[in-house]
Amino acid sequence: MQIEAKKVAALYARWLRLPEDALFHGGRGPVMKIYDALKSAKNKDDIKSILDLSKYEMEKQTLNDLTRLVNEILNRIQNMNDSDAVAFTLEVFRYFQIALATKIEDIKKGYWA
């Protein structure tokens, strides 16, 4: 499950157009806020509530990109039990933050256009 979470995180981090907005919008971006909230999730209903992107401020492009990630996560956890769903979603967002931070550093170094 951890490998799948890493794959999902890496794929969607690669395609996210505004990584700074996702991580740092207004100091703490939606990705950080979601990750913090997921730490207290107990079941899939909690996950769905936390992943309701309308609760977070972000640019429209970021909203569109994160919507794709959220839909992917919700599809993958559909047939999981609650504890596996929570663990998987937490892992995705943990690795997603790392991948976005790495992407920001790579952009600063000129590796991304």
Can you offer a commentary on this structure?
The protein has 113 residues and is mainly alpha-helical. The chain has one domain. The chain is 72% helix and 0% strand. It is built from six helices and no strands. It has helices at 2-15, 19-24, 30-38, 44-50, 60-77, 82-108. Helix 1 (2-15) packs across helix 6 and helix 3 (30-38) runs antiparallel to helix 6. It is globular, with a radius of gyration of 13 Å. The protein starts with a helix and ends in a 5-residue tail after the last helix. Keywords: Coiled coil. Residues 56-83 form a coiled coil.
Question: What is the secondary structure topology, with strand pairs?
Answer:
Blueprint: H1 2-15, H2 19-24, H3 30-38, H4 44-50, H5 60-77, H6 82-108
Helix pairs in contact: 1-5, 1-6, 3-6
* Helical percentage: over 70%
User: How much strand?
Assistant: under 5%
Mean pLDDT: 95
Shape: globular
**Quaternary class:** single chain
What is the structure about, briefly put?
The chain is built from six helices and no strands. It is an all-alpha fold.
Structure characteristics:
113 residues, 72% helix, coiled coil, mainly alpha
